[in-house]
Amino acid sequence: MTRRTAITEHKRQSEEEVVTAAQFAQEDEHDPNTDNGRKTGQEDKSEIPPLEWVIACVGLVLVAGALGLLLYKAIWKEVSPPEVTVRVFSVVPTQNGFLVRFHAVNQGGSSAEGVVIEGELRRGTERAETSHTTLDYLPARSERRGGLFFTQDPRQFDFQVRAFGYEEP
Q1: Could you give the residue ranges of the DSSP H alpha helices within 40-128?
Q2: Stretch (H or E) spanning 81
Q3: Segment 137-147, tens digit of pLDDT
Q4: CA pair distance 90, 112, nearest whole angstrom
Q5: What is the pLDDT of residues 91-130, one digit of tens each?
């Protein structure tokens, strides 16, 4: 085979490959199962399942409810004063006396700062011993724990504990 014949034969094979590729492309345009980024005569109508709509609506209600609650709390803020109550939950002997452990609960709508808690031991009308402590911060509707030290056993006396005062933050 000569060089000229080889070149002619190569050109003929290339032309056949181009014709074959063009035929495949033309067939793909008419095949409804292939898209290849081209629009065919039919629109692709994918419907959203009803369950997906239900879940989306539930999510929307939850988000709207949370935002509504935050706005309500921000706009119509409850401004009741602090309402501090103190409850003793244990008396523990220590090396230097006794520790009275307590819960201070603020049930009011405002925070209190510098809450002074006072404990008093009484025998009749006579005051035997007094102890006090300060809670730095007591947020609205919260609880803090603390302790009061006494040299005498509080269980042997009339024991009173109360919030003595606070500052506004």
Answers
A1: 50-75
A2: none
A3: 999 889 999 99
A4: 24
A5: 999 999 999 999 999 998 889 999 999 999 999 889 999 9
CA dist., res. 63 & res. 78, Å (int): 23
Contact between residue 35 and residue 43 where contact means Cβ atoms under 8 Å apart:
no
Dihedral angle of Cα 94, 96, 100, 102, to the nearest 10 degrees: -90
> What b/e sequence results for 137-167 when a residue is b if at least 16 CB atoms lie within 10 Å of its CB, and e otherwise?
ebebeeebeebbebeeebeebebebebeebe
Q: What phi-psi label fits residue 10: left (phi over 0), alpha (psi between -120 and 50 degrees) or beta?
A: alpha
Return the structure tokens found at 143: 């609880």
Tell me which H or E stretch contains 153: none
Task: Say whether 99 sits in a helix, a strand or coil.
Answer: strand
SS3 144: strand
Q: Which two tokens stand for residue 29?
A: 């345009």
Residue 22 is inside which H or E element, if any?
helix 3-30
Report for 17-26, 41-50, 70-79: range of highest mean pLDDT:
70-79
Distance CA 150, CA 165 (A): 21
Q: What's at 62, amino acid-wise?
A: L
